[in-house]
Amino acid sequence: MRSLNQSSKQSGFTLIEIMVVMVILGLLVAVVAPNILGRGEEARIGVAKTQLRNISSALDLYKLDNFNYPSTEQGLEALVSKPSGSPEAKNWNKGGYLPSVPKDPWGVEYQYVSPGSEGPYDLYSFGPDQREGGDEEGADISVHDLN
């Protein structure tokens, strides 16, 4: 009889042991979580920069073939299907320049503005805050800012 009572008292954890484990787990989460969560936004910014480089390269190929960049009205869709309107794409590549126009990692279309023959185009993402402007983590990501 005595061995039965002793074994039942020794099984399981005390409330204090469980609370100590919970405090340790809480401290680990408090230290590790900010480092892991911050990396997700950095990764999305990296993806946006890569996509901007790819779109910029496609725009340069478009210009080599057609002697100008697509107009703002023709937009980035001119890299996927032959655009109509001015300026005419006389030597447009039948396979296109991109398989599709990607959206930025936050699900918003990239912004493209072409001043025409006056100068280079502007290509950017509104960034993490999905609004024009912003600073630091919420800043727009422009093709002109890439290294």
Can you give a write-up of this model?
- The protein is mainly alpha-helical and 147 residues long.
- It has two helices and three strands, in the order H-H-E-E-E.
- The model has no long low-confidence stretch (mean pLDDT 85).
Comma- or semicolon-separated keywords:
147 residues, 41% helix, single chain, 6% strand
Uncertain residue segments: none
Total strands: 3
Overall geometric form: elongated
Q: What does the average pLDDT come to?
A: 85
The radius of gyration over CA amounts to 28 Å
Contiguous helical run count: 2
Q: Give the SSE string.
A: HHEEE
Q: Strand percentage, roughly? A: 5-15%
Distance from N terminus to C terminus (CA atoms, Å) equals 78 Å
Please state the structural category. Answer: mainly alpha
Tell me roughly what share of residues is in helical segments.
Answer: 40-55%
Largest sheet data: 3 strands, antiparallel
Reading side by side through the largest sheet, how are the strands ordered?
1-2-3
In brief:
With 147 residues, this protein is mostly helical. It has two helices and three strands, in the order ααβββ.
